[in-house]
Write a structure and sequence with these properties.
single chain, alpha/beta, Arc Repressor Mutant, subunit A, two-stranded antiparallel sheet, 14% strand, globular, WH-like_DNA-bd_sf, Methyltranfer_dom, 2-polyprenyl-3-methyl-5-hydroxy-6-metoxy-1, 4-benzoquinol methylase, WH_DNA-bd_sf
């Protein structure tokens, strides 16, 4: 932003602070897009050994165009993500940054989250139209959303299932080893179900998802692994029929963007066998915006809700509950669905979600 001298002199301290905040935000937003590019192109992995490189050396190592790599390094250097030796003209990814950037990052890839900025930006015009006319934007209009969600799920769910998530329900691992019927509603491309099917061959697994494209990918993955105790079906969760079919049901970050979340929870309760367990992962937020002021991810949560979670529900003629439906409303809806015993858990590896164990 350019301010001429008379205008600058007229700014109050509060105005000066606010314009400075806006400048910081536009820089952070731009850096976020470059973090996504670095994640998708493998540049962070190419820098992970900590060796200083010129832009030419990095481009060669990553198999990329040097001119684009040089400009990316300019953004990363001035943003403080990459360090730069002015005399030697070498770029280095600092040791403290390496565990959080790129695929396979040792402490979880935070750079993967920045992919959502471009995904959401791709439907901005459609969202603006919805502000004027109402309605919603369908799943099919989001490019790469399922791909990004699968990568996020790999980090927060799949790698944590064995050691963190399953132990939340005492005795569950022993039951899986003995053999039970398990369902995942909103399974995406089936990473969780296929992982569990491989680990627990005596149990039987079923993944349901609204999108046929993701179901096909889940089935392909299962075939490639030679798994015979898992199946997938493209089904609307509100249309699941039958009673007491499963001993264990999962939903991972799936309930809040359903068209009719209360109906889905009621169906899940009906589908559980006596003594069964429902394990729900969903966004960790409060139901009242006033109680989210100190939530570190609240702006991101409301943004992704407005531009995806809420709008895909409204596109189906649904409730549009939104990602920030919150713990209080979630507990009330679980009680309304017939779950008498609900415990909540926060896991150190997942700063965005809350885990509900329901019986």
């Amino acid at each position: 932003m350019t301010i001429d001298a008379p205008q600058a002199d007229a700014l109050t301290p509060a105005e000066t602070a606010f314009t400075g905040k806006l400048i910081e935000m536009i820089n952070h937003g731009a850096t976020g897009l470059m973090l996504s590019v670095g994640h998708r192109t493998g540049l962070f992995e190419a820098m992970r050994d900590g060796r200083g490189m010129t832009s030419e050396q990095l481009a060669h190592r990553a198999g990329l165009n040097e001119r684009y790599v040089r400009e990316w390094l300019g953004a990363m250097t001035t943003a403080g993500i990459v360090s730069f030796d002015r005399d030697a003209r070498l770029y280095t990814l600092p040791e403290a940054h390496r565990p959080f950037l790129g695929r396979g990052a040792a402490k979880g890839s935070m750079s993967s989250m920045f992919q959502f900025l471009a995904v959401l930006g791709g439907v901005e015009s459609r969202i603006v139209e919805c502000f004027h006319k109402g309605g919603g934007v369908s799943y099919a209009e989001f490019e790469r959303f399922h791909e990004c969600m699968a990568e996020e799920s790999e980090q927060t769910v799949v790698v944590a299932l064995d050691d963190a998530i399953l132990p939340l329900a005492p005795g569950l691992i022993a039951r899986l080893e003995a053999g039970i019927a398990v369902a995942d509603i909103g399974c995406g491309i089936g990473k969780a179900m296929n992982h569990l099917a491989a680990r627990f061959p005596n149990s039987h697994f079923t993944g349901f998802d609204l999108c046929e494209e993701t179901i096909l990918l889940a089935q392909l993955d299962a075939r490639e692994q030679g798994l015979e105790n898992v199946r997938f079906a493209a089904v609307d969760a509100t249309g699941l029929a039958g009673d007491a079919q499963f001993d264990l049901i999962f939903t991972f970050d799936a309930v809040h963007d359903q068209a009719e979340p209360a109906a889905v929870l009621a169906h899940i309760r009906r589908l559980l066998k006596p003594g069964g367990v429902y394990l729900m992962q969903d966004i960790d937020a409060a139901s009242d915006v006033a109680d989210n002021m100190d939530n570190l991810l609240a702006p991101f949560t409301y943004t992704i809700s407005c531009m995806h979670c809420m709008t895909v529900s409204l596109a189906q003629g649904g409730q549009g509950l939104g990602a920030a439906w919150g713990e209080q409303l979630a507990l009330a809806m679980l009680k309304g669905a017939g779950f008498a015993d609900v415990t909540t858990h926060r896991l150190p590896h997942d700063i965005q979600n809350l885990y509900y164990v329901c019986r």
